[in-house]
Amino acid sequence: MSDLFGSEVGEDESDGLFETVRPEVEPAPTSGPGPLAVNSHAPLAVRMRPRTLGEVVGQQHLLGPGAPLRRLVEGSGAASVLLYGPPGTGKTTLASLISGATGRRFEALSALSAGVKEVRGVIELARRRLLAGEQTVLFIDEVHRFSKTQQDALLAAVENRIVLLVAATTENPSFSVVSPLLSRSLVLQLQSLTPDDIEDLLERARTDERGLGGEIEIAGDAMDHLVRLAAGDARRALTALEAAAGAALDQAGDAERPILLDLATVEASVDKAAVRYDRDGDQHYDVISAFIKSIRGSDVDAALHYLARMLTAGEDPRFIARRLVVHASEDIGMADPTALQTATAAAQAVQLIGMPEARLALAQATIHLATAPKSGAVIAALGAAMADVAAGNAGLVPAHLRDGHYAGAAKLGNAVGYRYPHDHPDGVLPQQYPPDELVGVDYYQPTTHGGERDIAARVDKLRAIVRGKTRPGGRLS
């Protein structure tokens, strides 16, 4: 069964570079030290699991010389780690490589199926091995799904290094992992693979004997489409390649190899048409322009179409989020002040949970902004004020507003005569605030749309009081 984003429900829960070997209810240790065993009938994503550090793509920020993760993989580090990042970025693979490099036994548990009993069982097994001089790497997938009690069951074993814990999560561990376990582990954030990383991975799978053994060639547009479909997820990329290559080879029959894998075959195999979208070309600018103009024009359906188009094409979700935040002030502003809150929350969600789940937050923000009342008063007000400043209309700050917190300020007249608004029951009183040259200038011109209708009436009252045209005393709220 597929979820909203086209991923198989349950499969994306395995969060390593490729498929995670999941134990049954009782822990199922792999035999012997080193990486997980792979057979020739395993999926392409499993067969192409990196066997050495040199085969790992991406994560160079964590694998540079002397970096903690590299030291662990090379067997010279001894710290437990929490690997935090999107699906398909290498968490399971790195755990397996750590085990192989150090000669430790490798035990894999999934928080989806294991409980306290299973955790304690693996720890007891590791304790017995340690007495015999053999150490154990315990890999826990989806550790954020463990309850506090289950996570607490790991503490003593991690503290005393009975196990070297390598835990994987797609959630920010600061919110999903108990503090004592966090303090005993290195937290390393993995990043989505770049398009170049994905292309390198696909090319290796195409030529390697563990993969397709050179039986296919991949057309340029087909490769581009596979890279976009992957959205930074290696497992997704290799699964799509395997499906498309299988279809191409079946169609070719006994024809001479290599067979050309074209875009049409990829589209038919993965049931997802290529979106004509160049992230560095005209389409990039045309689609984002249409997206913002659809929101400004309050066409929620068109806005969702362009959002879907960008996401399907693999547009950087952070770019979309930034545009939503800008639009919330530029085209909505005080007509609905909550629009900026929603857009900012969506941008934070992109950073916090990543893709594909963050798509929902982007969609929610798009719907909020598209259906909100519109006002350009914020950008117009700031533009008018900046135009005056640029034209030289920036007179002296009135003396009563200047800083008076230093010796001699009073002699200069600074802060003398300043009236403190909170001393008045209404919290507002007559007083000059702008330079002399700008007294009476109105930059902010609220509309009558949405919440700005009430703000307009309030601004009129405030200006009248501050400028001495009306006495304070009327209700302002």
Q: What would your notes on this structure say?
A:
Pfam families: AAA (PF00004), AAA_assoc_2 (PF16193), MgsA_C (PF12002). This is Replication-associated recombination protein A. By secondary structure, the protein is of the alpha/beta class. It folds into 4 domains: 11-189, Rossmann fold; 195-270, Helicase, Ruva Protein, domain 3 (Orthogonal Bundle), CATH 1.10.8.60; 282-371, Up-down Bundle (Zinc Finger, Delta Prime, domain 3), CATH 1.20.272; 390-466, post-AAA+ oligomerization domain-like (Orthogonal Bundle), CATH 1.10.3710. It is 45% helix and 7% strand. The chain contains 20 helices and 7 strands. The chain has helices at 44-47, 60-63, 68-73, 91-102, 116-131, 148-152, 155-159, 173-176, 179-183, 195-207, 220-230, 234-252, 263-270, 282-296, 300-312, 317-332, 338-353, 358-371, 377-390, 452-466; strands at 80-84, 105-110, 136-141, 163-169, 185-189, 216-218, 259-261. The protein has a 5-stranded parallel beta sheet. The longest helix has 19 residues, at 234-252. Mean pLDDT is 80; it is low at 1-35.
